[in-house]
Write a structure and sequence with these properties.
heterodimer, A: mainly alpha, 0% strand, B: two-stranded antiparallel ribbon
Chain lengths: 41, 586
């Protein structure tokens, strides 16, 4: 269970479905977008 | 299971980064940096010469008046900014890596989330160190070398440019070398696997850089191109697979992989057509061989054919199978801009949006051709396999298009603002006099007729109407009166007029100077571009570390033949269509 939770497979395609990774990327991207907007903008 | 591998590697990487930051801050590596950052250094010397001259005059004036020498500071040049930027990044990451490195050495890891996330950091630091070396070191070294060889006449072309020896390609190549020659160290393995996460973040963040008009234009073009080539590729693979007697499940997964977006489509289509593990492996091997070849070949062909960002982006986004490799090829072609990547990713995302349609088609095809095929819940497969982060890109674009992140008009990275023109950028007396001379001349009957003919011949159109000579006179009069361009519309009119033959050289230069002075860098867009470039650079180095000889050897037999034929048809066919019909309009 533990190994499966953190298994990320390979990076060969960015479109291989991995919901956990997708949502993490979504949160990270929005954090950067709003962070840049607040700090630089 | 414990993931953290005890190693001083993270600490060493952190210290190396801190040293680099310190060397840049102290000026100890200025000699090396002046070679690496040639253009910024040339700007630095100009700024310094200008300052020395001003300082001399000010000192002489002060001496004449019996006052002490003025206290003046040298203004920061591009070179100073480059060094400060490198030092800042090195201090931030180096400091963080040293702290986490010390913690991981002292800490006794326990199974759980903290152990996993700590285990990821050394690999991230490893890729980041390579990214720093490649972006700040190897990329400029090769660029200078290619230019020097061309300037010396040894070659008539710039080999570094033609072979795309920039940070993207060099990063991927180093990644491939690391994994195939040296093997990825155990302490870095978990971090290297995060490459895909950073690529996904980069794609989502890219959504901040499109204007609605840009996306509408590119979107329409991409739907047509992708529609034709995706459906065409799937159809040809299905046809060839049947003719060559390949198993139906093998043919179906290969058609999804060759048609839509490589590995993900293969994975999404496999349950629908009940593909076996070895068939998936064959397909992925075939896609990889083709994709890796294309990633290196496409940018070179693009440069030889003199393609622009829109043309190349459209071609790469259509002709290359794997999404990460599309990004790699686009950045390899245009490493210091982001236009090509923007176009390529629109095509890529359009292709992914075709995925449900293709899965449906393959399910129907498989049930028709395979005796005893089991029915699968299609909706469930599509929902389970559709990449959510593509929706993230769309959400980001939606927020961006209503001006959440940057004002409209800033998307190109530069924006027009007359109010922000600095005092020293205003036109000088001799420049306005040259413009007055030209305005008087252009009002004379013969010149006025030539101007009107020029505007008609060149179809100078602004906001849907043809520009008249009166508008040109008004723009020139306003420019002379205010010593700067007043509106974006007048800037566009004047830019067109500056291209007219027979115009006085000083007047032409003045128009160009005034136009440049009114355009300003958007700091927000620049920050987004920097983030995106780093995320992709990081992700693509990690991608290189996943391209193993073992994965490529999975290809073979009939799938490789069919894949080769269809891949070539798609690449050549899309190239012809792009060269014939796609114009640079962004």
């Amino acid at each position: 269970m533990e190994a499966q939770k953190f298994a990320r497979g390979t990076s060969l395609s960015i479109f291989v479905s991995d919901r956990r990774e997708d949502f993490s990327a979504l949160i990270f991207a929005f954090a950067i977008a709003f962070g840049v907007m607040l700090i630089v903008g | 299971m414990i993931y953290t591998v005890k190693s001083p590697a993270l600490l060493i990487i952190g210290i190396l980064m801190l040293i680099w930051g310190g060397l840049n801050n102290s000026g100890a590596v200025d000699g090396m940096q002046s070679y690496l950052q040639k253009s910024a250094y040339s700007d630095h010397m100009k700024v310094k010469e200008k300052f020395d001259a001003e300082m001399r005059v000010a000192t002489e004036m002060a001496a004449a008046e019996g006052k002490p020498a003025p206290d003046m500071k040298v203004p920061a040049s591009k070179f100073d900014h480059v060094k400060a930027y490198q030092a800042q990044l090195s201090f931030i990451f180096g400091g963080a890596f040293v702290l986490i490195g010390l913690f991981s050495l002292a800490w006794k890891p326990k199974q759980g989330n903290l152990d996993y996330y700590v285990s990821v950091v050394p690999g991230v630091a490893f890729i980041l160190l390579i990214a720093f070396i490649v972006r700040w070191g190897l990329d400029p070294v090769f660029a200078n070398w290619g230019k020097a060889v061309k300037d010396a006449g040894t070659l008539t072309w710039d080999f570094a440019k033609i072979f795309n020896l920039n940070y993207v390609v060099l990063g991927i190549v180093i990644g491939i070398l690391v994994v195939n020659v040296f093997k990825i160290p155990a302490w870095a393995a978990n971090g290297v696997r995060t490459a895909r996460f950073f690529l996904k973040t980069g794609v989502i963040l890219l959504g901040t850089l499109y204007s609605a008009a840009e996306l509408a234009q590119l979107g329409a073009l991409s739907v047509v191109m992708i529609g034709v080539f995706v459906l065409g590729s799937v159809g040809i693979v299905l046809f060839m697979g049947k003719r060559m007697g390949s198993p139906n499940s093998m043919t179906a997964v290969l058609s999804a992989g060759m048609g839509v977006c490589g590995v993900s489509a293969t994975v999404a289509a496999s349950p629908v057509v009940q593909a076996k593990a070895e068939e998936i492996a064959y397909t992925i091997g075939t896609i990889l061989i083709w994709g890796v070849g294309c990633m290196f070949l496409f940018p070179t062909v693009g440069h030889i054919l003199g393609m622009g960002p829109v043309q190349f982006g459209a071609w790469a986004g259509t002709g290359i199978l794997n999404s990460a490799q599309v990004a790699g090829a686009a950045l390899a072609f245009d490493p210091h801009g982001i236009e090509t990547l923007k176009v390529a990713e629109i095509f890529n995302i359009t292709r992914v949006l075709f995925l449900p349609l293709i899965v449906l088609w393959l399910a129907a095809w498989y049930v028709k051709h395979e005796e005893g095929a089991e029915k699968v819940n299609l909706a469930q497969v599509v929902v389970a396999k559709f990449p959510v982060f593509v929706l993230g890109f769309i959400a980001m674009f939606a927020l961006s298009s209503v001006g959440t992140f940057a004002p409209a008009g800033h998307y190109a990275g530069k924006y027009f603002s007359s109010a922000e023109v600095k005092e020293d950028k205003l036109l000088k007396g001799k420049e306005t006099r040259a413009l007055e001379g030209e305005l008087t001349r252009l009002r004379e009957p013969e010149s006025a007729q030539a101007l009107s003919k020029y505007l008609v011949d060149k179809s100078v159109i602004l906001e849907g109407h043809k520009v008249t000579a009166e508008e040109v006179y008004q723009a020139l009069s306003d420019l002379i009166a205010n010593k700067k361009v007043m509106t974006r519309q007048q800037n566009n009119i004047l830019k067109s007029v500056a291209k007219m033959e027979g115009l006085d050289a000083l007047a032409k230069g003045s128009i160009e100077k005034a136009g440049k002075a009114a355009m300003h860098d958007s700091k927000t867009i620049k920050a987004y571009r920097d983030w995106i470039a780093w995320l992709f650079a990081f992700g693509l180095i990690g991608l290189g570390m996943q391209i193993t000889g073992k994965a490529l050897k999975q290809a073979g037999g009939k799938p490789l033949i069919i894949g080769g034929v269809v891949g070539t048809l798609k690449a050549v066919g899309s190239l012809i269509v792009v060269l014939m019909f796609v114009k640079e309009f962004v």
